[in-house]
Each structure stands twice: as structure tokens, then as C-alpha cells.
Design goal:
single chain; 334 residues; alpha/beta; Spore Coat Polysaccharide Biosynthesis Protein SpsA, Chain A; 2 domains; three-stranded mixed β-sheet
Length: 334
């Protein structure tokens, strides 16, 4: 069995492949690089064959989206590699980034590890998708070392220690392949967004840990598929968060779910009064979709008793950020 497959998912991403794949091909050596193509309608495949002959192409018959795209694309690689490096097509990697990730995941109880993720547009700033490790507050709001909501800190080396976190970023995450498949891969009901948080949460329920390893560094463009103001992205984030809480929350989970839905209502009416009517309806539609899928997600619950998870913040990051003006991770009392 080989050590590692570096796997990039693509859909109509010819420009991203031209910009970012050269760094992957250069710095992933001697490991195998794959591009899973989600039935692209542009000439991505021809571009790969012409300019990246060393890259292996896994062509899917339809556009399955992010979660199912990876699940289907990785099926042929099962039992061939010990680890998968799941990598967005808009990520520039750096020399030697793989070695510290592999060193960290070599520990038996580590399910996943991510690098430090900085912004490709401004390489002194942490990037939204992962920064220096992901956390989750008591109401299911994700945040990171170096990024709370849309506030991204400048990287001054303040978060250089490798620590267990709650979730690793799907922009660049190294996973144990056997565990990825044992957990059924990403939950395909999510389609995209927060599927990696859900996967990490499920891995922690089995007693594994997920880590940030800042010795490894990548640069992420971000927003390459959907912008932060996209109604579709808003819908997916709100719906999938409720899916995730229903599946994985411990203790009095129904009460916690209800509280989260109240917060969603506050966010929806803020969208409405600020003129973002489409985003208001995105939240409304997300809740309708959540109700429709509620029992299906309840049936997915499989939570061992007394299983602790790391990187879970007992406070409320919304109150900390907006009312207490705690805009940096270092000001949060974990």
C-alpha cells in the first residue's frame, strides 16, 4: 500500500488548475496526484492531459458536488493508499508541506490534520477556511485560530503550536484513508460546506483526534466556487449546520438545536432589515429543508456515552464577538 494520494476535486476549474496545480505537482513529489473531475463542461480534461501529464485523472459521469464527488472519486483508490490529502483546486502549496502533516497523522489516534491556511490574495493574513485550526462553540458556530466570522487576523506567528482542534479544513486536510471509508466518507446530504466538520465530529466520537500542524503552510484563494454573499452558500451553511447538530450533538441536543434555530432567526431578520432579502429567504429555505430531512438525520445519530471531543468551546462566539468585542482568537477564554 502506498503512503499518500493527493486528491483535487475539479468542476469547470480550468483557470484554477492552471494557476494552482503547478505548485501541487512540484511540491507533492514523490506522491501521486489525482484530479477528480465532476463531469466538467469546459476543457479541463484536455488541459490536464496537455500540461499535466503526470497527474492521474478520475472522471465522474455527473457533477456530484463536493461531498459525493470526493466519495465517488476516492472509491477506486480504497486500499491503495494509507492517506488521502484532500485539496481544493484553489490552493497553492509550499515546499515540504506534506512531511509535517504525515508526521502528525502517523500517531494512531489522529484521524486528520490540516496545515496553516493563509490567504492567497494577502499572504500575511489567515484565510477564512481553516486558518490555524477549527473550533466549534456550544451553539454550533464554527470559528478558527486566526479567524472569527469574517474577521481574519494577520499572521505574526502567534498560533504556531500544533494542537488538537475540533475540525480540519476541507480546503486542505490529510486523512487516514481507512477511517475516511469506515465513516462512509463525507455525508452526501450536505452537498458542500461543513461536511468536513461533520466528518471530524464523527471521527472524534470514535475516540480519534484532529490536529492543526502550522509547520505546514498553504495559501487558499477562497470563494472560488461561491462568494460569501451567495444565497446558495448561505442556504447550505445554515441547513448543513442544523443537519450536523442533529446528527452529532450530545446531551440535551434538542434544546441546543432549538437555541441555534433562534440564532438563525435573528440572523435572517438582520438580513431582511439590511435589504439582503435573498439571504433572508435562503435561511428560511434552509430551515424548511432541515425539517424535511429531520428524521433522516436523527437516524444517523450514533454517539457513544461519555465520549469527549476536543476543540469544543463552551461559550457563545456570537456574544463574544459582537457584544464583548472579542475579535481575535487569543481573546477567547477556552
Amino acid at each position: 500500500m502506498k503512503t499518500l494520494a493527493v486528491v483535487v476535486l475539479n468542476y469547470n476549474g480550468k483557470e484554477h488548475l492552471n494557476t494552482f496545480l503547478p505548485s501541487v505537482v512540484q511540491h507533492a513529489k514523490p506522491y501521486d496526484v489525482y484530479v477528480i473531475d465532476n463531469a466538467s463542461l469546459d476543457d479541463s480534461i484536455d488541459q490536464l492531459k496537455c500540461h499535466f501529464p503526470s497527474v492521474n485523472i478520475l472522471s465522474l459521469p455527473s457533477n456530484y458536488g463536493f461531498a459525493k464527488g470526493y466519495n465517488e472519486g476516492l472509491k477506486p483508490l480504497e486500499n491503495l493508499y494509507e492517506h488521502y490529502l484532500i485539496l481544493n483546486s484553489d490552493v497553492e502549496v509550499t515546499s515540504g508541506f506534506i512531511t509535517p502533516l504525515l508526521d502528525r497523522i502517523s500517531h494512531e489516534n489522529v484521524a486528520s490534520v490540516q496545515p496553516k491556511v493563509l490567504s492567497w490574495k494577502n499572504k500575511s493574513l489567515f484565510e477564512h477556511a481553516g486558518a490555524s485550526g477549527g473550533f466549534l462553540d456550544r451553539n454550533g458556530f464554527p470559528f478558527c485560530r486566526g479567524r472569527i466570522f469574517q474577521e481574519c487576523e494577520e499572521d505574526h506567528g502567534q498560533y504556531e503550536d500544533a494542537i488538537p482542534v475540533f475540525w480540519t479544513s476541507g480546503a486542505c486536510m490529510l486523512v487516514k484513508s481507512s477511517l475516511f471509508h469506515a465513516l462512509g466518507g463525507f455525508d452526501e446530504d450536505f452537498e458542500a460546506h461543513m461536511e468536513e466538520i461533520d466528518w471530524c465530529w464523527r471521527a472524534q466520537h470514535l475516540g480519534y483526534e484532529v490536529w492543526i500542524e502550522p509547520k505546514a503552510i498553504v495559501y487558499h484563494l477562497g470563494g472560488g466556487t461561491l462568494s460569501n454573499e451567495s444565497p446558495r452558500k448561505t442556504f447550505l451553511n445554515f441547513r448543513n449546520n442544523l443537519f450536523m447538530l442533529t446528527k452529532n450533538s450530545q446531551g440535551f441536543w434538542l434544546g441546543r438545536l432549538w437555541i441555534r434555530m433562534v440564532w438563525d432567526g435573528i440572523a435572517a431578520f438582520q438580513f431582511l432589515i439590511t435589504g439582503k432579502v435573498r439571504l433572508f429567504f435562503s435561511v428560511f429555505n434552509a430551515h424548511m429543508a432541515f425539517y424535511a430531512g429531520f428524521m433522516r438525520n436523527v437516524k444517523k445519530r450514533s454517539i457513544p456515552k461519555n465520549q469527549t471531543v476536543k476543540g469544543h468551546y463552551s461559550g457563545n462566539i456570537v456574544i463574544d464577538f459582537y457584544l464583548r468585542k472579542k475579535r481575535k482568537f487569543s481573546s477567547i477564554d477556552l
